[in-house]
Amino acid sequence: MPPRLLLPFVIMIHALPVLSDDDLPQAARRRRAPVSEVPQDFGLSYDPARSHARVLSDGFGRFHTYLRISLIEHCNLRCRYCMPEEGLDWTPDEHLLTNAEIVRLARLFVAEGVTKIRLTGGEPLLRPGVEAIAEAIGALPGLQTLAITTNGLLLPKKLDRIRAAGVNLLNVSLDTLRPDRFEEITRRQGFDLVVKAIDMAVARGYDPVKVNAVVMAGFNDDELPDFVAWTRDRPVEVRFIEFMPFDGNRWDDGRLVSYEQMLERIRAHFPLERLQDGPNDTSKTYRVPGHRGRIGFITSMTTPFCEGCNRLRITADGHLKVCLFGSAEVSLRDAMRGGATDDELREIISAAVGRKRARHAGMYNLAEMKNRPMITIGG
Ligand SMILES: C[S@@+](CC[C@H](N)C(=O)[O-])C[C@H]1O[C@@H](n2cnc3c(N)ncnc32)[C@H](O)[C@@H]1O
Ligand code: SF4
What we know:
This protein is of the alpha/beta class. It has a single domain, classed as TIM Barrel (Alpha-Beta Barrel). Helices cover about 25% and strands about 15% of the residues. The protein is built from 11 helices and 12 strands. The protein is globular and about 55 Å long. The structure holds S-adenosylmethionine (SAM) and iron/sulfur cluster.
């Protein structure tokens, strides 16, 4: 790719023309997985004709409409399942995407068909200028959902601005309803602030506020019924997440509480009604009859949902990851800083999406494989 002078980046939103298939770069037209490569139980709606139709389609007919952008690696908590105990070599600031680069990529992905963007981290609300980034992305024509996943500590301060910026979906992470345990799991204080953040989000009309709880045996699995009782009067959706292996988090299956085990334990206390999930939902959702809120299960380990995966990720240092559990990455930052045009970026993105595997390697293999620590991916 020829080096070019970079124009100074300013946060500006341009409406990009909608592309027809004829406008697509070569790489977007080239890919097509032979039907023989598509797993038997995979994507009932698999359509080989569609698998090469667009930049964000992969070889298995999955069209990616959901982009997760990590804004920062740093965090004000140190959750044991996320942050390696020995700490991290943080990426120097100049190697992280600038605000303008983030917005440029968001604009490009939305123009290609992304309808949902989630800002994550590290702790995204620590990123200087997060409000301006949210405003710029929130104004992109075609974007339907702008979400943030946050640990909630800074939410009481920032909620009104990010809401005004167009953030219409909030996930707040909270793994325990017991203040002393909060400190044990996160290695920091802040329980009251997180609960306050959830209450504020409810009061501002977020319905439901999603509450992410990573369930770990011997840490917080005895609180499953307490969390379910907590949904009685609150418009929250508590999402119980199976503990996943990432570099430095000492995963072992003795700590994993499976979807089936969680269901069984909850059913011993509450009747559960299964709700209908959307085609790309990662969560299996239930409700206790009469409860205002609901619960969900993210079952990436024991019941993966790769066939419906519509997610792509950009790390804070500008790498595109096509699978949360894969180590394959391509640096969009380096491409942009080398002067890549939007067309050239589309080529690079299209080729990376085209290489996406059918499914992840399974939890025992993943535990052995190299990947980033979760805090530098963003969930
Ligand atoms: C990496 S955090 C980043 C956003 C923000 N700091 C927060 O905690 O909400 C995103 C989500 O990933 C989840 N997570 C982190 N490590 C995990 C692991 N090993 N297994 C499952 N979920 C994990 C967190 O609980 C959180 O809900
Ligand atoms: S889960 Fe979120 S809050 Fe906890 S250490 Fe990771 S990035 Fe920070």
